[in-house]
Queue: 3 jobs
Job 1
Amino acid sequence: MSVLARHLNILDHTLSSLWRRRLKNLSVLLVFAGVIFLIASFQLVTRALTETAEQALVAAPEITIQKMSAGRQVAVPLAYSEKLSGIFGIRRVVPRVWGYYFDEVSGANYTVLGLERDRMPASGQLDLVLDQGESPAPGRSGAALIGRSVQQGLERKGGSLLSLFRPDLSMVSFTVAGVFKEETDILTNDLIVLDIDDARDLFLVPEDVATDLCVYVANQREVPTIAKKIADALPDTRVVTRAQIRKTYQVVFGWRSGFASVCLLTALAAFVIFAWDKASGLSPEERREISILKLLGWETRDILAIRLWEGILVAGLAFVLGCTLAYIHVAFFGASLFRPVMVGWSVISPSLRLAPTVQLSQFLLIFCFSVLPYMAATVIPAWSCASVPAESALGGV
Amino acid sequence: MLIELEHVTKVYNQGLANEVTALREVSLRIDDNSMVCLRGASGSGKSTLLSIIGCVFQPTSGRVAIAGKQLSRLPDRFLTLHRRRYIGFIFQNFNILPALSVEENIMLPLVPLGMRPMVMREKAAVLMERFGISHRRRFPAGQISGGELQRTAIARALVNDPPLILADEPTAHLDSRLSHEFMDFMADLKAAGKTIVITSHDALVTEHKAVDRVIDIRDGRIHVS
């Protein structure tokens, strides 16, 4: 007797058994797939957001210095950079001018960033995050790099020039030199990058101040030490490292995802308890069927095999269905169900598009927390099912 | 297939307040290729005796040997394998699974044997043809007539070609025409070399010409007629 042939026969019997109880099994399958869909969606969204943030931070300076006054950020004097000249390990200090620009026509709030790119050591990396065009030559006036939502706004208006208004309502126009990649949407979606002098001109920022100072460090390992020295040298400033920004993103997304996952795992636990209850409580019809099968020469292991196959088919199908739907939900619908929980209006542009990355370990984790408990909940109580005495199918004493 | 029982006793719930002695010191010999009827009132112990012969459970004490093989103390797994190979059951109410098709019901004893599906279908087809239920092959068993149900049950008992057929009150819920038909089938099986044990208190069964011997059971003891 071939073990494979025996299992194929039992699988065939299981399939017809599942089909006979298709309504009940379909409802279990859909509920289970729904729970897996929710958990997988959160996992994928968290991963996509952290990956996106990670990618976008590649071109960010190692350290950013912002001047604080009464708990608010104010313009930082360029003279502060001279105070840092004594700190060993600093490669360069580059001023940056940035601010927010509200476009009344589209109703969008853009972030305008003015860079002194000829002094930025990593300015060449800017081209790596561009989808179209290329970054203009450093110091070139009148050219802008824009995010995808800015480009969309421009296309709606039907123009090729980006026209912005100064505070005195006089207009200044820029040519679009390049558009940022979708993968960096988390930071660049609403971004307009200009030359620093253009940004000063747009926001009417004086020559002797900047919004913040970017510090580039020769040795990455020295960043925390240098940041501490800067904080000591400039006590009225806030010193932020790239690692801190990265950690902030991870904490924010991780906390939100973790909170949601706990809620969803509770739902999963409830489902598993329900499955356990269903599997351990045998209906008279099921008891009769098992006792008939045992009388006909089915062994306990054959009946357990039916339960095992039922579990594998229902849980496996629910897992594949749930994970596939989760991927579609995140990749093509931008995780619209969880967007308010995971992203938040005040932090990131609502039109952010997520590009989920599929990691085997993630799906393995979901598998371990969903399919395995379900299998255990259905197969372990099957011992009691399989031990139904065969004689109960016979008549009286 | 020769069946020998010596001093077989079966006690249910032994040592408990609801202890019941179903069989007391039963000794019995059923010859190969014979048809024996176990007759007795409800609760007399005839179904228990049939279950012990059918290796469904073990006696509390005594010895059971079938075809010379001592079965009384074998583990449950071996009894199942023995049952699978040597015994065909026909139950009271026939115990056909109503949601399965006629063909699926007949093939049930073959499923755990690891036989190829085509072979299983061929075996079932031969029996369905023999018992005139081929036209009901794909019908759910819950939708066929009592007579067809009966023939499906017999076909299922014969599908793995067992030498011993055990039937538990097979005519209890049949009208006289179907009861006659059933006994005629049993007579054919006996003629084909099978050993048949039937529990019944239906005169139509006990007085059938093919029955070689009627064993009366009362209060768990045998009274040979």
Note: Chain A touches chain B through 33 residues (CB under 8 Å).
Job 2
Amino acid sequence: MQAAADTADPVQALTQSGYKWGFATEIETELAPKGLNTDIIRLISARKSEPAWLLEWRLKAYAAWLTMAEPHWAMLAYPPIDYQDLHYYAAPKRKPGPQSLDEVDPELLRTYDKLGIPLRERAILAGVTPEEGTRQVAVDAVFDSVSVATTFRETLAKAGVIFCPISEAVREHPELVQRYLGSVVPTGDNYFAALNSAVFTDGSFVFVPKGVRCPMELSTYFRINARNTGQFERTLIIAEDGAQVSYLEGCTAPQRDENQLHAAVVELVALNDAQIKYSTVQNWYPGDAEGRGGIYNFVTKRGACRGARSRISWTQVETGSAITWKYPSCILQGEDSVGEFYSVALTNHRQQADTGTKMIHIGPRTRSTIVSKGISAGQSNNTYRGLVRIQPKASGARSHTQCDSLLIGDACGAHTVPYIESRNASAKVEHEATTSKIDEDQLFYCRQRGLSQEDAVGLIVNGFCKDVLKELPMEFAVEAQKLLAVSLEGSVG
Amino acid sequence: MLEITGLAAAIDGKDILRGIDLKLPQGEVHAIMGPNGSGKSTLSYVLAGRDGYEVTAGSARLDGADLLAMTPDARAAAGLFLAFQYPVELPGVGNANFLRTALNAQRRARGESELDAVQFLKLARAATKQLAMPDDMLKRNVNVGFSGGEKKRNEVLQMALLRPRLAILDETDSGLDIDALKIVAEGVNALRGPAFSALVITHYQRLLDYIVPDRVHVLVGGRIVRSGGPELALALEADGYAAIAAEAA
């Protein structure tokens, strides 16, 4: 993300070829030995000075993982992952738990500067609306396995909002973590969630107490740096009765020839009348044009609308990763609760994405909206996979799905796999899907007006994604638009 | 000055243009008239650089520059504007954003400074006012949900903002009622001057009551079979293309 002071010409940025976040940081790293076993899990837990209950929890998850098999139902093809050939803990070498930014390694701060992430408290993300003046965004930054800095904590604390690394929350707010951790995504939920539960190293924790509207956007930047390292972050967001919070995450990684594994778990809990808006701009390294390298992204994201009239909204722009396996979901338990999923998934070259959502309607009059825009280019494959389930007690439930695919070129694939299960006759479930190729007439029209081929494609694709992009907080929407154009470079001959 | 010499073009191996010679001096407006299938739209697409048309012979130069060697966007930056017979819809793309992107792309290509949002909006509002278009036309998505008349007016709006050296109007009058026709004609006439030339492609004489051409060319079977002054359009209206074609043959 670019800071406001950076007025770099977006067009110039677009013409820079390739993945511009692909640099690696030379920094001393503490690495656990390769491999996964109970000793490694004990080591992670010890490094984080965790209480005994959490170590037990991890070991239980590990035991479950050992009995499970990697799922292969998704439309993804990749060589077997050797889980023993990875480091499960990597940390920038320094004394644990930075107290202030002054204690953070300057090399790390330079890395985040390069990424344009404003760690310093006065920095503001790009795209500030003039009428609102200075807009503040609190940032947590996770580098490999640890959180390196969290900003604006004092301001947030005054409002009663807790925003900190989850490892710190375990120490400072154990009762909250123990009550909610694994309550939405249980340790044995699925193969990758079990793996994450066993070895998660850091991530963000957000708690917004009853009746509080979080005074600023919360944001976490995830960066994988170390070689042969998995990143397993865990995020937990709790909004009590009437609370509201908007959270955004951004992800990048260095350009490396080998694949890196990322298996995160995100849990959201919304109580009565609470609202959680969770936005993602996922731009992990996608691999090169021949499909070498790139992140394997196996992520479990789920939100529980536990309270009446609660609302959880997922917005994602997925342009990175060699493999994406991700289905941000909503459990609509509270009556009149609302789940939303807005997604743009773009694949180019040899990227593969299998992504979508699950909307589980349990309570009466629950509502869900799904808007999915898939763009496939190059030789990539892009699958929308979505489940809408209406449980017997969900009288008057409503669900609407709009699922559009856009193909660029003739060597890519787009697939739509909707599952609809209704066990209540009063529910209304709608599904609309379209697939189209990028239109030659549209391209020619734009080029006749003076746009280059790439700008024309960028404009048309951004228009195609408009319904999703408008759901993003403004500073991210601007960034996402540029990202879509960059990701499509070289996709049209 | 647009100079077309011996231009021949084919689609899917089928010859459509069979040797067109045309000189359009700067500052003049010429009309091209012809029956359906005579190659009028093909001529406009070939000049604008649309894919799928194979130029088999001849040349087209705009102010000496070889148009046929340029990409469509380079032709646009060189000052060529095509008002489409069927303007294309761009869902999700705001009209103002589209226009500013296009204008700035052309300005950049010509080494001129780009306009910021405020400068652009000022310019755009003045142009919509002149064309009696409501301001919300700028906010709507490009041509999406526009009536036929609105689409054509939107083409003229784009032309007014991009200020081309050469405008090609491909049957811009088709589907327009008389009021819309007058607005479109006024838009073209407002641009007339020593630095502007236009090729007005039309089926009917009606448009030429409002945009009075310096010359009229009759296109039949991929060739210009006759050229003359504005009175030629009237003769065509009275006698029909068949008579003119027979006379020329």
Note: Chain A has one domain: 2-487.
Job 3
Amino acid sequence: MSGQGMSGQDQLWEVFVRSRRGLSHTHAGSLHAPDAEMALRNARDLYTRRQEGVSIWVVPSSAVTASSPDEKDPFFEPSADKPYRHPTFYEVPEGVKNL
Amino acid sequence: MTRAFKNAATALGDDALVLAQRLGEWSGNAPTLEEDVALTNIGLDLLGQARFLLSLAGDEDELAYLREEREFRNVQLVEQPNGDFAHTIARQLYFSCYQELLYRELASGDSQTAGLAAKAVKEVAYHRDHAVQWTLRLGDGTADSHERMRRAVDALWRFTGELFAPVEGLDVDLPALRGEWLATVSQVLERATLTLPTGPDRTAWAAGAGRQGVHTESFGRMLAEMQHLHRSHPGATW
Amino acid sequence: MTAIQDTPGAAGAVGLQAAFDAALANDERIEPRDWMPDKYRATLIRQIAQHAHSEIIGMQPEANWITRAPSLRRKAILMAKVQDEAGHGLYLYSAAETLGVSRDELLDKLHTGRQKYSSIFNYPTLTWADVGAIGWLVDGAAITNQVPLCRCSYGPYARAMVRVCKEESFHQRQGFESLLALSRGTEAQHAMAQDAVDRWWWPSLMMFGPPDADSTHSAQSMAWNIKRHSNDELRRRFVDICVPQAEALGLTLPDPDLRWNEERGHYDFGAIDWDEFNEVLRGNGPCNEQRLANRRRAHDEGAWVREAAFAYASKHMEAKG
């Protein structure tokens, strides 16, 4: 138990919802629950009251490893100077199709 | 619409309406905010079922607001006061296990309620799951919660026999459902480290019970609260 | 997700402040793990917690009528609405938790009166029409306040508000519809609707907070892109929206000074009783004690249930290994 909250009674969970088949699960928010089974049910009641989902994942927040802001530059800057990874980098003569 | 069919629709509609009313009393009072949302979800499902069923029998509001206590046909189990959370969960466990079996039977038949039952059986399966999860946690939680859950399961047991009494106009063999209900409930209680109550499952009174319009004392107060405003403005629309 | 505040060395602090300022200047969002000034964090915690508490306490005046709703349709609508409020409280507590506080801490502060909730919920719901008036006026004022918060600089708060605003769109409409039914109903129903509007109008205007000149937090919040419009500006917008709606309802607003000002292009309205506002804020409203006592009671009575769920989880987690 990661001891979220002063009383240590429940854990914080991150909720991911698949809005319809064919789409991936996206982060919807978080919630409290004493265990995974209740987290799943709480997520259903809290995040899909208006038919927002067909499938739910819950993950203990403590299990998420995030890149920190300090890593921002080394992590993400190097990809900025590689325009050749994008199709718009290349010149295509007029009239050439299906490329 | 035959009189017998209306009787059946009213009985099932009243079950759903009265339990929804009781669950509505929890709004803002649940042990956690998440549970507040969960109990209201169940209440809303039941209210939807009630409105559909009562509309088959007549005007939903006339039936809900203008009948006297003796005209209501719900089982006594659903009108029992919320008590502590354990009592509410025990009531939910007994009733949702019953309702799931009942709707499953109705859904497979060809009565006018088959369509509703097919939709409602999914709702009720979730209600049962909710009750089971909490029965496990309260039964197998702390010594205090175990004792409270034991008391609740015992206290409500005597209202369970009525669930399986035949209902006029209802095309379901209710007595035949009791075996499966008992098996499900016993299994859940066992997993929750609780034991199946051994006392009588009905009271000894020849007048009958809820299906005959004979209710418990707290029901009159519940109705008084529910009906008061509507009755204070005869003929008004809201 | 839980925020871990990265503690920069003295040299790094200046750069971090510059990065934060630049993000605000570009109208970018601040995210939980970004560096932020302590005061920005504290302001957000205070505001989001107060907002969450308001949703939770705000359930009480309306839940007061669930068991007495005069038709099954209205009962279903009201139950769904009060339930939404619990949900909104939960979204907001989650947003606050990204700033490094726990929900238990925030609830404890609410229960001990160290954090506030909106004063509007310290007024009683005396008749059924109050439920309609809350939907129309109180939710209307809340939406006017909340829509700009969807663009607030703190990402998790803004995202929570997008969800809240989307769900709340039915809240105001159901209130209006309910009041309209009363206004067009019997004489007694019409009188009930008028009485409710008479009692809720002024407190609703107070929901936008003190006049700009007296608002202690406003300037800094605007600079931080937490707040996008001033109290008075939002209040004026709300009055302009309500006047024609009141006419459509066939109800009057209890303000003899309310009239269209051609020159300003807005309605002029009478003076707000700020003494009442301050007194209610101080704890002397009609329901302050009752609302807090109810909340504490529900929380205390639920303690054994939360303990049971925790005990069960601990046992079965060990069993699973």
Note: The CA atoms of residues 18 and 25 of chain A lie 4 Å apart.
